[in-house]
Amino acid sequence: MGCTSCSNDKNGQPKGCKNNGTCGTDGCNKLTVFDWLANMSLPDGMEPFNCVEVRFKNGRKQFFTNTEKLSLSIGDTVATEASPGHDVGMVTLTGELVRVQMKKKKVNVDSEEVLKIYRKASQRDIDVWQEARDGEDKMKVRAREIAIRLDLRMKISDIEFQGDGSKATFYYTAEERIDFRQLIKEFAREFNTRIEMRQIGFRQEAARLGGIGSCGRELCCSTWLTDFRSVNTSAARYQQLSLNPQKLAGQCGKLKCCLNYELDSYLDALKDFPKIEIKLYTKKGVANCQKIDIFQGHLWYAYEGDWMNWHKLTAEQANKIIKANIDREPIASLEEYEVQAIPDDASKPDFNHVVGEDSLTRFDKPKSSNKKRNKNQRRKGKPSKNA
Q1: In what side-by-side order are the strands of the sheet with 298-303?
Q2: What share of the chain is helix, strand, coil (3-state, %, to 5)?
Q3: Which domain holds residue 286?
Q4: 67-79 tens-digit pLDDT
Q5: CB 213 within 8 A of CB 219
Q6: CA end-to-end span of the chain, whole Å?
Q7: How do residues 259-287 score in pLDDT, each as one tens digit?
Q8: 337-346 per-position pLDDT tens digit
Q9: Is the per-residue pLDDT at 20 higher than 50?
């Protein structure tokens, strides 16, 4: 049920780490949840919560009711209710934490969305489910060929078979509305199974497919991120990032979700800074803000007409000048408040050689020059090797 290097074998056991799906490094599971209530016992007379969380292909999760009172643990492969037939998935969460998750996602226990768990998956269930999953890649290639032949502007990104192989769900992305009635007829005739088309967004597509981001780690949306908040270009402006679409866009083609991670910290830091559009009025001239360094707390201003010479001020000094402008107190120039630059020699640390001043290559044998050897041989009248 995990990644390709640790996927389930035909007998239901993982091929790689052999940890029954509960990988200790959390590298082969998507959207896993740490059960911090697992080591806590229930009060006397209280029955355990009869709902469990089951994960299917590519992080799709759903809650099910354990009506048969089965003894389930994380990593068990179970056969669940589906419409029609049954589906096969892996238990990812049990106990009281499921109640918390259902309350967080606003899922009622008595609602029709919560289906039943039939049984633990038998060997026959796993064989049928594995055989259906093995044919998904070939079906996806053929489905894309049919969509191109019908001239439909859509991208079929993934196919998910039901556990009993009676239904195939096609996930696709499209910029506009697609009339796929003819496409469904072609799929039903070609694949001889029940077809369901489900449109997803570009971020959901990247979350299902997974990948490596520009940071070198797995995508957040495919490992732990569950809610997709809107990301604006103002988040990049507040963090002093260049508005380059190629650097700010993620694998989905939209703005990276990680632009919102540190936005609150930047907004708190910018509260002490004056606004960029506020001008500083002095007797020498009017100065405009050119640059901000949030980490060091500095601002650079330049006089109008003398844009090449920048003057560095702290946020506190800039606020003092703005307050003086409001109180109509004249300021001579920015040079009175300018931060003095530290010399380069003083800023560099003084390092001492621990092993002495000798070179580390002093024991290497010097390379003899062939030219000098040939020249000495000619002087003595001996023929050289080249001759």
Answers
A1: 280-281, 286-293, 298-303, 306-314
A2: 30, 20, 50
A3: 273-336
A4: 888 888 888 899 9
A5: yes
A6: 73
A7: 999 999 999 999 989 998 999 999 999 99
A8: 877 655 555 5
A9: no
Of 336, 356, 377, the domain-final residue = 336
* Section 320-325 average pLDDT: 92
| Confidence at residue 145, expressed as pLDDT on a 0 to 100 scale | 93
User: Looking at residue 334, what DSSP letter applies?
Assistant: G
Cα 75 versus chain centre, distance: 25
Both 42 and 83 in a single domain? yes
User: Whole-angstrom Cα distance, residue 131 to residue 162?
Assistant: 11
Specify whether 42 is located in the same domain as 122. Answer: yes
Strands 86-93 and 115-120: unpaired
pLDDT reading at 294 higher than 50: yes
Q: What angle do CA 299, 302, 306 make, to 5 degrees?
A: 165
Residue 237: other Cβ atoms inside 10 A:
12
**Same domain membership, residue 85 and residue 17:** yes
- What is the pTM for the complete model shown? 0.69
Question: Angle, nearest 10°, between helix axes 181-191 and 136-149?
Answer: 140
In a domain, 384, yes or no: no
Residues 6+ apart with CB under 8 A from 27: 3, 6
Number of residues assigned to the chain: 387
**φ, ψ for residue 48, nearest 5 deg:** -65, 155
The DSSP call for residue 219 is -
